[in-house]
Amino acid sequence: MIDVATLSVIRRWALREQLSIREIARRTGLSRNTIRKYLRVGEAEPHYAKRVSPSKLDPFALKLAGWLKTEAGRSRKQRRTVKQMYVDLQALGYGGSYNRVAAFARLWHEQRLVAQQTTGRGTFVPLAFGPGEAFQFDWSEDWAVLAGVRTKLQVAHFKLSHSRAFYLRAYPLQTHEMLFDAHNHAFAVLGGVPRRGIYDNMRTAVDRVRRGKERDVNARFAAMVSHFLFEAEFCNPASGWEKGQVEKNVRDARHRLWQVVPPFPSLPDLNAWLEERCVALWHEIEHGKLPGTVADIWTEEKNDLMPMPRPFDGFVEHTKRVSPTCLVHFERNRYSVPAPYANRPVSLRVYADRLVVAAEGQIVCEHQRLIERNHHGAGQTVYDWRHYLAVLQRKPGALRNGAPFLELPAAFKRLQAALLKQPGGDREMVEVLALVLHHDEQAVLAAVELALESGAASKTHILNVLHRLLDGKPAPAPVTSPQALKLSVEPQANVLRYDQLREVRYAS
């Protein structure tokens, strides 16, 4: 075969020095036809036909191409890897190497991309954002030790697109109320609200993805956007690079925060630590595009953010019916409601950390929200004994074994133990408990403790002490008397006085 150097010499002799083909053939030892062919083409570099060699994979090429086409239509998590296909080909009798199978798969994917004209998917356009223009949001899953238990958490990530200031907050779930609470905290820490927010097509924001950029946005999410006065934009499906800054922040946070996170007794303690660490990292991380740290650029961008309005009332409302036992059910747990609302519909407002029950336009009660990962248990019941006082007044006997009254304060339990030893003690104890409906509970407890200390545990005495406490009058000073009283004039025993009285009576 002729090489590039020989072809260069032939072209120089023939075209520049005007040597004959016979002379060039004599000098090079090549045939005259070969020399004429290369001079006729006029190329400065020889081309050779691609060598085609048989492969052990040839009998299985159609089978492998069919597998690759099938796997390309499946989701990423369900696809077979090339190594798995290699093992399956070996089961069919393939005796070649894995490298040949991998090379075939690479070539197949390249040809498929060319056929679909999608080779541009691997290229991106750098984006630039002005101060206060946009923020990006995303969720991630991470782990932390809470109260001694390794717990999986859903972490909300916010990042200002200009200054790259970021904020993280952890939650047990990715629900609407958690999303709304995260925005309230993020805008407070970031110092204001940008003009746009960039999201993926998460279910808590988008009900349906339509053609192009059209979305059916969830009503509650739209209400939050309207409250904070920013414009919500959504990425194309499976196009995470459209919010690449926060995607990168999710990866960076794993080694900056989650690999060094210490154990905490509760989730609020963890979130307080996350907020503190985020702000500290702003001062440590260089911006990269602009001179200075993230904190330096954020200080300038903060002036372009809209001031933070009042927090968004981010609850999700459910209509519930109170059971005959004065309970409402939510997420397999049960929460007590005041007895007058038993067997009636109420509105349950679900927040990230609490539940609020409303009826007839008024707040009825509030409970701390319980969230359990175990989906096989019976759930928990949260009682408030005050909710059952109306029932007790009609059924005082329920006080002895009523489940809600197992959580009575210690002073009430001691008083109950003393009163139940007396006839009618149930009724009297119920009347004492009913005092909390009309007076401050701490004042009633103080009156009960004073009555117990004095040794006069009765309703009458407790009422007397309570009124003195409410009126601000001090307790009367105790009366002290000697062991034996002494008279200044000792009486004398004189029976003659009775005879004198009789004589005066008869005379009259």
UniProtKB/TrEMBL annotation:
GO terms for molecular function: DNA binding. It comes from the Bacteria. The keyword Mitochondrion does not apply. One of its GO terms (biological process) is DNA integration. This is Integrase catalytic region. Coiled coil: none annotated. Residues 127-257 form the Integrase catalytic domain. Keywords: DNA recombination, DNA-binding, Transposition. It comes from Alicycliphilus denitrificans (strain DSM 14773 / CIP 107495 / K601). Residues 6-68 form the HTH IS21-type domain. Belongs to the transposase IS21/IS408/IS1162 family. It holds the Pfam family Mu-transpos_C_2.
